[in-house]
């Protein structure tokens, strides 16, 4: 996979593959798509309606994030990208970029629309997670 920086590869190996970069390549390449986020969002918007019932069935209507004390209290579900389509988290965390008065820290393209990278989240947990990279319990 073509990560922009070697430390990004290391970050995702730690997050997903117990720190083993070969395992990241072998088992998690479907989670990534480095094309422009706008293309990925456009593709996602086209199939999200059809996908929702599939994910509700796959996970038995259970939120997979379980982050918030009020998880699933309101039965409103959303589709969450486990690895976000775009994120500036690594630019902030690993490269210590800060926003300036005129510019935000630039995002990088990471996550894919592959079914493996999509999970069911209740509204509450999804709002709580924001754009942080937190793995669902089933990963
Ligand atoms: Zn939840």
Chain-averaged pLDDT: 93
Q: Can you count the helices?
A: 5
Radius of gyration: 15 Å
Helix content: 25-40%
The percent range for strand residues is 5-15%
Number of DSSP strand runs = 4
Label the structural class. alpha+beta
> How would you write the strand order of the largest sheet?
1-4
Order of helices and strands: HHHEEHEEH
pLDDT < 50 runs, ≥5 residues: none
- Ligand types: zinc ion
Sheet with the most strands, sense and barrel status? 2 strands, antiparallel
The tally of domains stands at 1
Q: Globular, elongated, flat, extended or rod-shaped: what is the shape?
A: globular
Query: How far do the termini sit from each other?
Result: 20 Å
What does this entry look like structurally?
With 139 residues, this protein is α+β, with helices and mostly antiparallel strands. It has one domain (6-129). Helices cover 38% and strands 10% of the residues. It has helices at 6-16, 21-28, 37-58, 89-93, 123-129, and strands spanning 77-81, 86-87, 108-109, 118-122. The chain is globular. The two termini are 20 Å apart. The mean pLDDT is 93. It binds zinc ion. Zinc ion binds next to strand 4 and helix 5.
Give the helix/strand layout.
Blueprint: H1 6-16, H2 21-28, H3 37-58, E1 77-81, E2 86-87, H4 89-93, E3 108-109, E4 118-122, H5 123-129
Antiparallel strand pairs: 1-4, 2-3
Helix pairs in contact: 1-2
The structure holds zinc ion.
Zinc ion (ZN) binds next to strand 4 and helix 5.
């Amino acid at each position: 996979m073509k990560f922009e920086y070697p430390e990004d590869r290391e970050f995702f190996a730690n997050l997903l593959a117990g720190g083993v970069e070969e395992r990241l390549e072998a088992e998690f390449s479907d989670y990534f798509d480095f094309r422009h986020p706008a293309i990925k969002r456009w593709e996602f918007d086209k199939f999200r309606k059809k996908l929702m019932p599939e994910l509700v069935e796959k996970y038995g209507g259970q939120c997979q994030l379980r982050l918030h004390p009020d998880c699933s209290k309101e039965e409103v579900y959303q589709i969450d990208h486990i690895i976000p389509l775009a994120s500036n988290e690594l630019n902030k965390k690993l490269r210590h970029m800060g926003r300036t008065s005129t510019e935000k820290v630039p995002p990088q393209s990471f996550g894919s629309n592959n079914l493996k990278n999509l999970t069911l989240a209740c509204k509450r947990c999804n709002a709580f997670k924001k754009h942080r990279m937190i793995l669902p319990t089933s990963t």
